[in-house]
C-alpha cells in the first residue's frame, strides 16, 4: 500500500476540493445548489475534469522510476484516488446529514417545487405534474437522508471505477515483446 501513497494524496485532494465546493454555497446561500450554471459547472468539474486530472496525476506519481507499469498497477493507483475521495465525501456528507438533517429534506422539497414550476411553465397537463411529483416522493427515501448519501456515493464510486479502468488502460506500459512486433 505504501507504493500507492501518491494516489492516496491525490484522492485526499479530490475529496477536499469536493467538500469545499459544497461548503461554500451552503454557507453563502443554499439556493446556489439549484442554479443551473453552478450545477453544470460542478457536474463537469467533479464528475469529469478533476477526477480525471487527479487520477492521471496519481498514476504518474507512482511510476516516477519509469519501471514497467502494468495495467493492474495503473488501474489500482487511479482507483485509489477515487476510493479515497469517496471515503472522504461519504464521511463529510454523513456528518452534514446528522448535523443538519433538514438540509437534505429542504433540497429535495425545493427540487420537487422547481420541477413542478418547470412543468407548469411548459404547460404540462396536471396529470403529468401529479405523476412526476408522486414519482419523486416515492424516490425520496433513496435520495435523502443517510440512504441518499450512501446511494449517491456508491454511484460515484462506480463512476470512478469506470474512469480508473479507462485511465489504467491509457497509463499502462506495453510489454517489451508487444513493442517489438
Question: What distance lies between the first and last C-alpha atoms, to the nearest angstrom?
Answer: 34 Å
Average residue pLDDT? 84
Radius of gyration: 20 Å
Principal-axes geometry comes out as elongated
| β-strand amount | under 5%
| Number of continuous helical runs | 7
* Low-pLDDT sequence parts: none
The tally of beta strands, per DSSP, is 0
Percent range of helical residues: over 70%
Largest sheet: none
Along the chain, the helix and strand elements come as: HHHHHHH
Helix-strand category: mainly alpha
What does this molecule look like?
The protein has helices at residues 5-28, 36-62, 71-99, 101-121, 126-143, 145-171, 176-180. Helices cover 83% and strands 0% of the residues. The chain has 7 helices and no strands. It has 181 residues and is mainly α. It starts with a helix and ends with a helix.
Give structural attributes.
elongated, 0% strand, 181 residues, mainly alpha, 83% helix
Brief write-up:
With 181 residues, the protein is mostly helical. It has helices at residues 5-28, 36-62, 71-99, 101-121, 126-143, 145-171, 176-180.
Amino acid at each position: 500500500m505504501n507504493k500507492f501513497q501518491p494516489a492516496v494524496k491525490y484522492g485526499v485532494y479530490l475529496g477536499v476540493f469536493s467538500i469545499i465546493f459544497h461548503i461554500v454555497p451552503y454557507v453563502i446561500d443554499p439556493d446556489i445548489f439549484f442554479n443551473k450554471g453552478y450545477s453544470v459547472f460542478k457536474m463537469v468539474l467533479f464528475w469529469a475534469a478533476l477526477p480525471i486530472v487527479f487520477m492521471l496525476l496519481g498514476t504518474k506519481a507512482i511510476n516516477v522510476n519509469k519501471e514497467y507499469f502494468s495495467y493492474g498497477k495503473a488501474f489500482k493507483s487511479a482507483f485509489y484516488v477515487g476510493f479515497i475521495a469517496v471515503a472522504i465525501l461519504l464521511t463529510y456528507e454523513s456528518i452534514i446529514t446528522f448535523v443538519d438533517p433538514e438540509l437534505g429534506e429542504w433540497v429535495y422539497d425545493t427540487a420537487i417545487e422547481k420541477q413542478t414550476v418547470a412543468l407548469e411553465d411548459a404547460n404540462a397537463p396536471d396529470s403529468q405534474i401529479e405523476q412526476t411529483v408522486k414519482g419523486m416522493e416515492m424516490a425520496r427515501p433513496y435520495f435523502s437522508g443517510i440512504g441518499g448519501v450512501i446511494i449517491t456515493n456508491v454511484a460515484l464510486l462506480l463512476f470512478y471505477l469506470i474512469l480508473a479502468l479507462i485511465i489504467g488502460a491509457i497509463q499502462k506500459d506495453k510489454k517489451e515483446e508487444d513493442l517489438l512486433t
